[in-house]
Amino acid sequence: MIKNHLKVLRAKKNWTQEELAKKVGISRQAVISIEKYKYTPSLELAFKLAKAFEVDINQVFDPEEEIE
């Protein structure tokens, strides 16, 4: 599973999981699952998350670092 930086990016924006979920059109539970590596988002959702944070997708998801 590819490492993500959702929690760190949310903290920088002072967003709750609920706020992020509303911005990208998913449930709070989905945000929790992505942060805990229980769910891998689709490519479309990954781009929506990057857009919400106003960063490149590689700043949200690190393809060089995998979680086992």
TrEMBL record:
<dbReference type="Pfam" id="PF01381">
    <property type="entry name" value="HTH_3"/>
</dbReference>
<feature type="domain" description="HTH cro/C1-type">
    <location>
        <begin position="6"/>
        <end position="60"/>
    </location>
</feature>
<dbReference type="InterPro" id="IPR001387">
    <property type="entry name" value="Cro/C1-type_HTH"/>
</dbReference>
<keyword id="KW-0238">DNA-binding</keyword>
<protein>
    <submittedName>
        <fullName>Helix-turn-helix transcriptional regulator</fullName>
    </submittedName>
</protein>
